[in-house]
Amino acid sequence: MSPAELDPYVLERMRCEWDKRARENARHFIATANDEWNTEEFFNSGRLNLFFEILTDLGNVCQGKGPKDMKVLEIGCGAGRMTRAAAEVFGEVYAVDISGEMIAKAKEALADLGNVHLFQNSGADLQVLRGGGLQIDFAFSFIVFQHIPSREIIYSYAREVHRVLRPGGLFKFQVQGVPLTEGEADTWQGVHFTDQDAVEMAHASGFELRYRQGAGTQYFWLWFFKPEAMEASKDSA
Ligand SMILES: C[S@@+](CC[C@H](N)C(=O)[O-])C[C@H]1O[C@@H](n2cnc3c(N)ncnc32)[C@H](O)[C@@H]1O
Question: Which pTM does this prediction carry?
Answer without folding.
Answer: 0.95
